[in-house]
Amino acid sequence: MTHPLPARLPRLLLLSAALLAIPACAGVAGETRVEPNTLVPEGVMRYAPSVFPDRIVASPAQDAATGFSVAWRTAASVEAAVLELVIAGDSPDMGPRRRVAARSASLDGENGAAQFHRAEVDGLQPDTLYAWRVQGGGTWSPWMQTRTAAAADAPLTLLYFGDTQNKNASLSTRVLREAHRQAPDARLALFAGDLVSGGDGEDDNEWGEWFDAVGPLATMLVNAPAPGNHEYWEEFEDTPQERRVLGGHWPRTFALPANGAPGAEQTSYWFDYQGVRVVVLDGTSALDLGTAAAQAAWLDRTLAANPHPWSIALIHQPMFSPRQDRDNVALREQVLPVLERRRVDLVLQGHDHVYGRRPGEDAARATPQYLVSVTGAKQYRLSDGARRDMAPTAEDTQLFQIIRLDGDTLHYESRTATGRLYDAFEIRGATPATRTLHEITEGRIAPRDCARDATLKGRADRCWE
Q: What is the C-alpha separation between 400 and 416, in angstroms, rounded?
């Protein structure tokens, strides 16, 4: 007796053939090969937009106790999307829902035309768990749950990630999930820029993989990213007219507060979250587009008006670069004096793909503390200056950071991809003038340096790429 072939069998056979053609990252046992930047094989459309909402991410409102914003993506045919919201309850019948209309913007990418939506939710109750979902084309997302910020004196746990950038789905995923395992009470995630690499014809695939790596953190927490240089692209490259241009994904992918510095309105912003004012700067615009002075003046005004006991600055390019042959002079001349004068507690940075910590210009003061970290796979090498002026430092190490604020104490931990403690300290004191730094050395693993002479591609200036 013969049986008819399932209608989908030809498609399954084609998929199997395509999978067999994909080059593996490892050949014979023990052999390591260069891994591609994404897990998407050439010619495969993994992240095509559809009527189903995807790339859903929550971000803080300026006052995170009374609001948050949500961005998401659909096919280009979806033009009038909405968000539904209700106080979360224990029954599936959570009561009448509030509807918030979204604003939409289109973008064409290698995976096809898409529509990006953003809904800004205000008038919420502090420290309240809200259930919400977003609309597609005749479809809805699952119900998500996000809690608004609590009172200013309530304890807060937040996460800080350096550059994810390369091989996000393959190698950043484990770090982000380990961070959530180590700090399940985290409410806020800060990303120090270069979320993707970009510029290689796979921008949309890279953003798709970034969302895969972040996973449920995109909606369980509110997420605040800084733009990096890889969120820009070079227009008129290799000509006298060459200039930096902000990539199309950045202003559409996140729904961020619209309170930025003049000249960097789309890429700088600030918000208040439970006793801390977070100020996000655009280092690329400052260095390459001439906005350093304007951002510094805006930063000064924003910090001068801070009603909270704590402050954090988030910027991609470091004030003091731990990588050889990098020197961000405009940031040190314009932005650094404001950070020092206003006694910002933490300056969280990325860009240099190593780890390093150092005090401010007055090493006797507890603040600011300047941090550089990296979450993703690309790993550089430390400069001699970094080994002299920073401690601890690390090469060849994927990291995440947990920051806990409780009353007059800020507790900081840097942990490796496997959760091991690499760096820790506390800043104690009710006011900036009274704060003291306390090193925590118990439980730290030994310093890590790159043991390879060159990368798999033969680059001696990097440890891994």
A: 6
Short-list 373, 377, 426, 383, CA closest to 404: 426
pTM beyond 0.70: yes
Q: What are 244's two structure tokens? A: 């930096």
Question: Which superfamily, per CATH, for 156-464?
Answer: Metallo-dependent phosphatases (3.60.21.10)
Sign of the four-CA dihedral 372, 186, 314, 165: positive
Return left, alpha or beta for 11; rule: phi > 0 is left, psi -120 to 50 is alpha, else beta: alpha
Eight-class DSSP state of 382? B
CA-to-CA distance for 58 and 158, rounded, in angstroms?
A: 15
pLDDT, averaged per 10 consecutive residues of the chain (465 residues), comes to: 41 40 47 87 94 98 98 96 98 97 96 97 98 98 98 96 97 98 98 91 93 98 97 75 86 98 98 98 97 98 98 98 91 98 98 97 96 97 96 98 98 98 98 97 98 94 92
Question: What residue ranges do the domains of the chain occupy?
Answer: 60-147, 156-464
Task: Please state, in angstroms and rounded to a whole number, the distance separating the CA atoms of residues 381 and 373.
Answer: 13
Helices 173-182 and 203-214 sit at what angle, rounded to 10 degrees? Answer: 30
Question: Which long-range contacts link 447-454 to residues 24+ away (Cβ below 8 Å)?
Answer: 447/392, 447/393, 447/394, 448/394, 448/395, 448/396, 448/397, 448/422, 449/382, 449/394, 449/395, 449/396, 450/379, 450/381, 450/395, 450/396, 451/396, 452/396
- Class of the domain covering 60-147: mainly beta
